[in-house]
């Protein structure tokens, strides 16, 4: 556990040394709130719609941080000799991967603050404090499968290819998962298909916790299923990278 915390600490410090990168993933989701929710009186002035929009964009912030930051970061680190040296140390993979997950959850938590602040100041979004705290905890838990997916992409692809792959994943997952438009506006076929996506399952759970929907056991099962799939994918990618670069 101490080694895991040590890895997490140094990874956090390494990210903070590049303030522009941190600002980028902190500001981007709140900018979407400013451009696509705040100027729309029908959404911004309605407590239910604006609360749901804030929850959806908060989840998008989590997905964005997990895939962009960690997929790209791992791919870049793999190209450096220092990463190869770390992989040969006796500590093994668990402290490093665990440190990355803790690091990801830390920055995911930071990314929620601008979205919540923007919703509170510029819209009619409202929810009891306890529900907001539960939603934050839930959002961090929902981020785990996306962190695992980011780890898998980072260990499978090069630093040049990873950005394209993440772009191809983030926006389709966000749109089809109902993070940009409420699923009630989807055609029937898209609404049915999106219920199998981790973003849609996470969105439905967050909206339910905020008090504007009903939690579904199906959403929880979908999320747990994708967590297992992405966990196995990340383990495969890690072992494949180890086998290709050194033994």
TrEMBL record:
**Cellular compartment(s):** Membrane
Offer an example of a GO molecular function term for this protein.
ABC-type transporter activity
- TM region positions: 21-41, 53-71, 105-123, 129-149, 161-181, 217-238
**Bilayer disposition of the protein:** Multi-pass membrane protein
Q: Output the superkingdom of the source species.
A: Bacteria
Q: What are the residue boundaries of the ABC-2 type transporter transmembrane domain, all occurrences included? A: 10-208
Please report a single Pfam family linked to this protein: ABC2_membrane
Q: Identify the InterPro entries for this entry.
A: ABC2_TM, ABC_2_transport, Nod_factor_ABC_transporter
Sorted keywords for this record are: Antibiotic resistance, Membrane, Transmembrane, Transmembrane helix
GO terms for biological process, alphabetical: response to antibiotic
The Gene Ontology CC terms held by the record are: ATP-binding cassette (ABC) transporter complex
Among its keywords, does the record have Cytoplasm?
Answer: no
What PANTHER family does the database record attribute to this sequence? Answer: NODULATION PROTEIN J
This protein's name: ABC-type multidrug transport system, permease component
């Amino acid at each position: 556990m101490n080694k895991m915390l040590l890895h997490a600490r140094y990874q956090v410090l390494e990210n903070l040394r590049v303030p522009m990168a941190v600002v980028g993933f902190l500001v981007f989701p709140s900018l979407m709130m400013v451009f696509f929710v705040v100027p729309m009186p029908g959404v911004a002035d309605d407590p239910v719609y604006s609360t749901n929009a804030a929850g959806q964009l908060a989840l998008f912030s989590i997905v964005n941080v997990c895939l962009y930051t960690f997929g790209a970061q791992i791919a870049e680190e793999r190209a450096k000799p220092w990463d190869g040296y770390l992989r040969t140390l006796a500590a093994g993979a668990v402290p490093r991967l665990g440190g990355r997950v803790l690091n990801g959850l830390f920055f995911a938590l930071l990314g929620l603050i601008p979205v919540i602040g923007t919703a509170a100041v510029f819209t009619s979004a409202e929810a009891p404090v306890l529900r907001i705290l539960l939603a934050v905890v839930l959002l961090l838990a929902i981020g785990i499968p996306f962190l695992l997916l980011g780890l898998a992409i980072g260990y499978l692809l090069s630093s040049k290819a990873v950005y394209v792959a993440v772009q191809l994943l983030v926006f389709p997952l966000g749109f089809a998962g109902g993070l940009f438009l409420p699923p009630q506006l989807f055609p029937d076929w898209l609404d049915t298909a999106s219920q199998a996506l981790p973003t849609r399952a996470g969105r439905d759970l967050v909206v339910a916790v905020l008090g504007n929907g009903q939690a579904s056991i199906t959403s929880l099962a979908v999320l747990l299923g994708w967590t297992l799939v992405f966990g196995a994918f990340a383990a495969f990618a890690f072992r494949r990278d180890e086998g290709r670069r050194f033994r």
